[in-house]
C-alpha cells in the first residue's frame, strides 16, 4: 500500500513515527499522525488545516488531545457513556494522578531501554492508513496523499476525530475545502 503514498503522505507517516519516538510511545497512534499533519507546510492537507483550524486555534486542539491522553485515550463520548453507568472518569483520573502523578493514565512508556527496531502502528493508526486508501479510491485519486490521511482521521471516530470535529475539521468541511481548492 505504501507504494501508492505520495511523498507528502510518506513524510506524514515518518513524522508520526518521529512524534511517537519523541514522546516515548510504544506505538504510532492516530494522534501522532495528526501531529505530523500539523507539522506539514505546502501540502494539500496543510492548506486545508490552515483554513479550517488556523494557527491561533491549534493550541486548543493540542490541549484537547492532551486532556484525552490524561483520560487514557477515552473520548468525551466514552466518558459520558461511562457516566451514564455511574462511573466518573474524571474522579478516577484524579485519584490515579493523585497516587501516581499527572498523566499516569497516558500509557506512554518513558523507559528508553525497552524498545528496539521499528515502531509499530496501533490498531487505530492502521485503520487510518487503510481508510486513506479507501478515501483515495472513492475520490478516484491514483495516489494516497496527505489529504487522504486527514480525511481518514476525520472518519475513524475516537479522540482524534472528536477533537478535529470540535475545531471544525470534519470530513464534509475537509472535502469541501479540497474540492474548492486547486491542487498544489
TrEMBL record:
One Gene Ontology term from the biological process aspect of the record: proteolysis
Domain (Clp R): residue spans on this chain: 2-184
Protease among keywords: yes
Keywords: Hydrolase, Protease, Repeat
Species of provenance: Streptomyces litmocidini
UniProt-recorded Gene Ontology molecular function terms: peptidase activity
Pfam family, one: Clp_N
Taxonomic classification: Bacteria, Bacillati, Actinomycetota, Actinomycetes, Kitasatosporales
Protein name according to UniProt: Clp protease N-terminal domain-containing protein
Amino acid at each position: 500500500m505504501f507504494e501508492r503514498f505520495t511523498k507528502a503522505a510518506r513524510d506524514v507517516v515518518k513524522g508520526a513515527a518521529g512524534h511517537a519516538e519523541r514522546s516515548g510511545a510504544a506505538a504510532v497512534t492516530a494522534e501522532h499522525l495528526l501531529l505530523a499533519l500539523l507539522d506539514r507546510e505546502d501540502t494539500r492537507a496543510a492548506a486545508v488545516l490552515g483554513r479550517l483550524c488556523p494557527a491561533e486555534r491549534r493550541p486548543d486542539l493540542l490541549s484537547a488531545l492532551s486532556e484525552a491522553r490524561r483520560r487514557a485515550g477515552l473520548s468525551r463520548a466514552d466518558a459520558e457513556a461511562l457516566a451514564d453507568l455511574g462511573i466518573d472518569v474524571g474522579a478516577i483520573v484524579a485519584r490515579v494522578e493523585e497516587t501516581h502523578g499527572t498523566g499516569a493514565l497516558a500509557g506512554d512508556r518513558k523507559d528508553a531501554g525497552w524498545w528496539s527496531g521499528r515502531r509499530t502502528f496501533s490498531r487505530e493508526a492502521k485503520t487510518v492508513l487503510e481508510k486513506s486508501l479507501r478515501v483515495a479510491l472513492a475520490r478516484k485519486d491514483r495516489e494516497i496523499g496527505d489529504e487522504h490521511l486527514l480525511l481518514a482521521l476525520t472518519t475513524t471516530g475516537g479522540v482524534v476525530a472528536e477533537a478535529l470535529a470540535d475545531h471544525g475539521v470534519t470530513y464534509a468541511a475537509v472535502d469541501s475545502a479540497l474540492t474548492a481548492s486547486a491542487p498544489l
